[in-house]
Design brief:
single chain, 175 residues, mainly beta, Immunoglobulin-like, five-stranded mixed beta sheet, 11 strands, elongated
Length: 175
Amino acid sequence: MTESAPAQDSGLTAAPDSPEAITRTSVLAFFVADHAVMAPDAKMYVNGGFFALLRFPAFPATLPTLGVGAVLEMPFQDTMRDRTIRIGLRGPQREELPVRVEARFRTAPSLEAQYGEPGIVPFAVTVSNVEFPVPGVYNLVLWLDGTEMRTYRLRAIQVPMVASAGAGPVASDPG
């Protein structure tokens, strides 16, 4: 006689590990890209994502575009409540730099949502002309309602100029 294998739990009926597991907002993703944008269908489009090293020929240096993507998982009971997301950049001395994006939002369950199901809330933005004053470690920071939720580490380094045949010096690619 063969034994039947235990039924696989799909996660839909499993009990949560703790009450906090169903009542806290989670940051599912937080990253940088060359470009990030949200489409009207709530899909995030990202080009050149998930890098951690920036190469510049001289400092202060300017990055032409810095895309930022974030995905929050909001608990069901937090729907229909005003929230604030803020993203900023800290320099090597932990100083806050003049890169700041802030948005107020309110989530609502979709028509297809099951009772108690958490909501997925994506954010994307591209910031132009981000200045990095000195080489070092920078941290992109995500705050939700004034609470620091996540950081993303970037390191800016100085690299030599590359000479191009027949032309003047050319800076290496920052990405």
